[in-house]
Design a protein that fits this description.
It is a single chain. By secondary structure, the protein is mainly α. The protein contains nine helices and no strands.
Length: 272
Amino acid sequence: MHTLDLQAYAGDALVAIIAGQFAGAAAGARGPTGPFELSIGFLVAGAALASFLWTENKAEKNANDEAPTIGDAVNVIKKDPKIILVGAVQSLFEAAMYIFVLQWPPAISGIIANSFNGSATPYGTVFSCFMASCLLGSTIFGQLVKKNVPTETSTSAMLSVATVAMGIAAWISRSSTIVAMPLAALVAAFFAFEGCVGMYFPSIGTLRSKYVPDSHRSVIMNLFGIPLNVLVVSVFLSIKRLGVSGALGISTGALALATASMFKLKSMSKDN
C-alpha cells in the first residue's frame, strides 16, 4: 500500500471526525433536518471540484481496443479462485458494514434511553468517535505494513476481531435487560468494529491490487457488488421481523464467512 494511499485514508477519517461535530451542532440548532441542510453546501462544493478537477476514469481496453465485458470478467474469475475469495471478503464485510451503519443508532439510543431515563443520544459525537476509531485502524495497518506483516495475515486477524465485536454487539442488543454495563460493552464492541473498518479499506485495496488484474478490476468488483446489495436489501426488507439484534446477528454471520474466506486465501497464498 502506497504511503499516499494511507494518508488519503487518514485524511478521510479526520474529515469525518470534523463532519460529525458539524452535524451534531447543526442538529442542535435546526433539529433532525439540520445535518441534511448543512450537507447541501458541501455537496455543491464537491460537485464543483469534481467538475473542474476530475478526469473521466475509463476501464482499460484489451488488445482489440475494446473495453472488458461482463463475460470477460466472469472468465477471468473462473480461472483464479483467489479472485472469488477477495470478492467474497469485500461483499460480506461491506454488507455487514452497511447493515451496521443503519443499526447502530437504534442500538445505542435504546440502551441510553433505558440507562439514563430517556436522555437524548449525541449522535454527532458518537459518529466522530467512530471515525477516530477508523483513523486508529488505518494507522495500525500502516504500522503493520512497515513491519512487513503480510496483508493476508493482518486482514485475517482484523476480520476475526470484527466478527467477535459484532457478535458481542448482537448479543447485547438482544439481551438489553442485562444490568452489568450493557452500554459500555456495546460502545466498546462498536468502537472495535469501527477500528476494523479503518483497517479494512487499505487492506482490501492491497488485496485487490495483488489478486485482481487491472484490466478487469472495475467490472469484477461491480459483479461482487451484486451479492452485497442483495444481502443488505434483504435484511432491510425484513428489518421489522429481525429487529436490531437480528440484523446485527446477520452481520456477524457475514463477517464470519468473510473471515473464513480470508483464511482460505491466506492458505492459498502460502501454497504459491
